[in-house]
């Protein structure tokens, strides 16, 4: 089976929009390879929770990383795709529009242990419930608590502009690529100044900050899947582990080991 079809096959026959109840949940297990769900959308909003491993969600103009014990909120009607690391355990919580006040834009939520356990319980119980039975009351509390989850920023602004997409695709193939802005400008037949302005206009970040944010996305995803700090630093092309740890700590306020330990 092609890797990209694994999540799609796991979701075959499951359509969250056919259920008008306030919320329903689904557990997906990814085994020995990365798996990807192609671009799709649905009426319900979707919370993507990584209980184990990491998930990357792509929406128009942004990539969102879902570290363990965090979730990404995707509003209803927004096209998106999901990619999971190997051996990941993912929960999807689908929320009916209007059931609770949720953000109108994509965002990363820090999910409390109580919310995680309620999502696990709802997924284990299946979809059938009534508003006034035990599961219905659980859903009411769950939605109330999800809406209170604090928002965290861990995403990469991306662009559909062909020149910037070319750079993003190259970095995806080789995260250690250290091609400078002037070198990219020459490759793309642009002036350095024009390319610098284009990056800022399309992403809101300078080229250096944008590439660093890409490295953070790759780093958190890789660390979440169990790779050692030394291996991640090497994958991203850092001259030393110390340089990688310094970048990570400046960006996220903690060392990689401490950050991942707290997530778990």
From TrEMBL:
The keyword Acetylation does not apply. The keyword Repressor applies. SMART domains: HTH_ARAC. Residues 165-262 form the HTH araC/xylS-type domain. Signal peptide: none annotated. It comes from the Bacteria. CDD domains: cupin_NimR-like_N (cd06124). Transmembrane segments: none annotated. This is AraC family transcriptional regulator. It comes from Comamonas terrigena. Keywords: DNA-binding, Repressor, Transcription, Transcription regulation. InterPro entries: Homeodomain-like_sf, HTH_AraC, RmlC-like_jellyroll, RmlC_Cupin_sf.
């Amino acid at each position: 089976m092609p890797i990209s079809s694994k999540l799609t096959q796991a979701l075959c026959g499951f359509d969250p929009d056919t259920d008008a109840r306030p919320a329903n949940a689904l557990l997906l297990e990814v085994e020995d390879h990365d798996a990807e769900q192609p671009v799709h959308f649905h009426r319900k909003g979707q919370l993507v929770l990584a209980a184990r491993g990491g998930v990357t969600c792509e929406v128009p103009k942004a990539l969102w990383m879902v570290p363990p014990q965090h979730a990404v909120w995707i509003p209803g009607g927004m096209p998106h795709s999901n990619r999971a690391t190997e051996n990941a355990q993912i929960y999807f919580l689908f929320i009916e529009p209007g059931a609770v006040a949720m953000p109108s834009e994509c965002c990363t939520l820090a999910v409390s242990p109580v919310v995680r356990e309620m999502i696990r319980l709802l997924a284990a119980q299946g979809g059938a419930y009534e508003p006034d039975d035990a599961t219905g009351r659980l859903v009411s509390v769950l939605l109330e608590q999800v809406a209170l989850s604090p928002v965290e920023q861990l995403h990469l602004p991306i662009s559909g502009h062909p020149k910037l997409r070319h750079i993003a695709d190259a970095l995806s193939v080789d995260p250690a690529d250290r091609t400078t802005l002037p070198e990219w400008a020459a490759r793309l037949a642009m002036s350095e100044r024009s390319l610098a302005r284009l990056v800022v206009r399309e992403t809101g970040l300078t080229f250096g900050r944008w590439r660093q944010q890409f490295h953070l996305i790759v780093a958190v995803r890789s660390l979440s899947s169990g790779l050692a700090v030394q291996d991640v630093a090497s994958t991203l092309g850092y001259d030393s582990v110390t340089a990688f740890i310094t970048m990570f700590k400046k960006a996220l306020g903690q060392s990689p080991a401490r950050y991942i330990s707290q997530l778990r």
